[in-house]
Amino acid sequence: MKRRIKHQLGDILAPYLFIVPFLVSFVFFFVFPSLYSIVLSFFKYRGYGEMTLVGFDNYKSIFVYPTFWRSVGNTIFYWLAHIIPVMIVSFLLAVMLNSKLVKLRNIYKPIIFLPQVMSIVAASLIFKVLFSTRTGVINALLGTQIPFMESVSIAKWTVVAYIFWRSIGWWMVIYCAGLTMVNPDLLEAATVDGANSAQRLGRITIPLMKPIFLFAFLTDTISSFKIYTEPSIMFNVPTPPHAISVVGVMIQSLNGGQFGMASAYGWVLFLMIFIVSLFQLRFFRDKG
Domain tally for the chain? Predict the structure, then answer.
């Protein structure tokens, strides 16, 4: 009896032993730093020496800091300006490449996906060379002096162009994988009933792809709100106010030795992402 109980207990505990390394790393590298950053956001701390309790002063300073609101507007612009065009174009490319009418699909897919293989830093430097005002390739070809990097109204669009170019291949692959979830028997039955390609796409494929769309929109939103490298490299460090992101302002606080303020920025950014994600979850649920 005891041997049977020990054997059953071993069967229950065995799976958990395999995930112990993950649990330890998760607690050490995520849970503890997250909890510590919450505490740190209520202190004034330079990374060394004494910590001074300031309460909500760090958060108050954030919301009266004009550059923060400028960075929020820039971040939201980077997100909204690219997400719909990227999702539409990448989905249509996936549908085309999934069609039997398109030949050489194994050649087109890696070509479109190629920007994702390139380093973010290297790609950002390429766009900096392309859009530079005096020595840029585009201005040299057109014989113009368009201030792509300096103009307040144009500068952010160069970042959007970069995000668009780099993101299409990634989401195309995701949508290609999602299209495999669509039962071909349903499409064949719709064809027999007289449905054309547009009707099959709108009434069968797109509704069945809703979980993939939700994943794509949530993931792209999170990465968009955390954008930092692209504008920092394209516009140099420190990034000018007309192009800086929320993470950019947070990094400036870290560089200035304001660890408590940087932690507060991090949690404000977390709340922004959380609220936007809830709206997206509600939207896709209502559409279901």
Answer: 2
